[in-house]
Specification:
The chain has about 450 residues and is an alpha/beta fold. It is built from 15 helices and 15 strands. The radius of gyration is 41 Å and the shape is elongated.
Length: about 450
């Protein structure tokens, strides 16, 4: 048996052994990796990669954590330049924030050239573009005024701007408080005053600071003129229901005509003050004024405002074959008529037209429905001279002496007022030098 077993063992095929070969390859690989990993250059590179990855992960984690923390702890308020509260907030901040806390300032210049050649310029300082920090009601706030150089407000052509206010989320109530204060401050500046609006693109913007309301009694027109206009305007304002019930467009047009210096603009300003209305002034000869823009402006007049179109004769004369031939602006005559009383024209509107040369106006412009009341304001009459003299000097006998020396002389009320102002508190000198009123004509 042992022999047989021995034969069987010898006859059993012997399988090739691969363990020896695999072990050799494994040893070679291990040697290769050992050599590579033991290389100091490889160790340094791998270490840098690891450090870089760790820093990137840390940076992203920190950024994510800051974003989450910011969302939970901070709150922001964005005010675009298109919003009315934009300028309100800038002026409010310039008043409330200590000067040392506002490091970037911007100037707001109001410029206007008057018909007589004089120029009115006003400057205002407000927080400029940049980042500002200030404390209000024991609450710290960050204010960023940003200007986008690539975006523009198409309505004004000005760069698009935004104000972003940031504070702690728990103090978010301060936004409502400061916006309310900014509004109240803006309204307080207008209290007891008349705001003059001028067109800026397709919108109305205040021009300069609000003017102190002029007393209606300070404008002395010829007998009965002022009373007729004031009575008519007040009757119009108080009878909106009457117009609506009868299907009549609720708008009223007035024409004041006469030589320069007869008090047309002054009377409109005094009337606006008496009614507690504002004034929107539009120059029809303004370059770039189109029919669409004109219609938009007349249809979007601020509430409780008188619309004033000054010197309409300068923009339009008698119509020619070409509807807008020779006009200084881009508006057409038909465009003006449609803006005044067309289908798209605004309701609840009071509009005043003034001209020095009524004979140059086309009858279609001043027909009833577009102009409902016409009043002539000429050179100073005896009635006006007497009342103006008495207003300055309160001396009846001297007033009669002054009237006697000015009889039948063409004197404008503007030059008469200037004469009295120059000789204030000197009525006799005003009489003695009365010839200067017509010698300078």
């Amino acid at each position: 048996m042992s022999f047989i077993n021995t034969l069987q063992q010898q006859s059993t095929p012997i399988e090739p052994t691969t363990n020896t070969t695999l072990s050799s390859e494994s040893i070679e690989k291990q040697s290769f990796f050992s050599n590579v990993t033991s290389n100091p250059l490889f160790s340094a590179g791998f270490g840098l990669i690891g450090v870089g990855a760790a820093l990137t992960l840390l940076r992203q984690s920190t950024k994510f954590g800051v974003t989450v923390l910011r969302r939970r702890l901070l709150v922001t308020l964005e005010i675009p330049s298109k919003d009315k509260s934009y300028l309100w907030f800038l002026h409010w901040m310039s008043h409330h924030a200590p000067k040392r806390q506002v490091q970037h300032l911007a100037v707001e210049t109001s410029y206007r050239q008057h018909d007589n050649g004089s120029v009115t310029t006003k400057f205002g300082l407000v927080p400029g573009p940049g980042t500002h920090y200030f404390k209000y009601k024991n609450i710290w706030m960050q204010v960023q005024r940003q200007r986008d150089g690539k975006m523009m407000d198409l309505s004004t052509g000005a760069p698009w701007e935004t104000i972003t206010i940031t504070t702690l989320s728990r103090d978010r109530h301060v936004f409502t408080t400061l916006l309310k204060e900014a509004q109240e401050m803006a309204l307080k500046k207008q209290e007891g005053k008349t705001v003059i609006y001028t067109s800026y693109g397709p919108e109305w913007r205040p021009f300069g600071m609000p003017r102190r309301r002029r007393l209606l009694e300070s404008v002395i027109l010829d007998r009965g003129v002022k009373e007729r206009v004031v009575t008519d305007v007040k009757a119009f304002i108080n009878n909106g229901k009457w117009y609506n019930e009868r299907g009549i467009p609720y708008r009223r047009g007035y024409l004041l005509y006469g030589p320069p210096g007869s008090g047309k603009s002054s009377f409109i300003q005094a009337l606006a003050g008496d009614l507690e209305y504002n004034i929107c002034i539009l120059n029809l000869s303004e370059r770039g004024l189109t029919d669409d823009r004109l219609n938009h402006l007349l249809s979007n007049v601020p509430e409780r405002s008188i619309m004033l179109l000054e010197d309409v004769d300068a923009a339009f004369t008698k119509r020619t074959q070409s509807d807008n031939q020779g006009y200084q602006s881009m508006i057409t005559f038909s465009g003006l008529l449609n803006a005044l009383d067309g289908v798209a024209s605004a309701e609840e509107r009071i509009i005043f037209l003034t001209t020095n040369h009524v004979e140059k106006l086309d009858p279609a412009l001043i027909r009833p429905g577009r102009v409902d009341l016409k009043e002539y304001l000429g050179n100073a009459t005896e009635y006006q001279i007497r009342n103006m003299f008495m207003r300055f000097y309160e001396d009846v006998s001297l007033a009669e002496a002054f009237i006697k020396k000015t009889k039948d002389k063409p004197i404008s009320t503007a030059s008469l007022q200037g004469h009295f102002v120059y000789y204030k508190d000197k009525p006799q000198e005003a009489i003695d030098n009365v010839e200067s009123l017509w010698n300078d004509l």
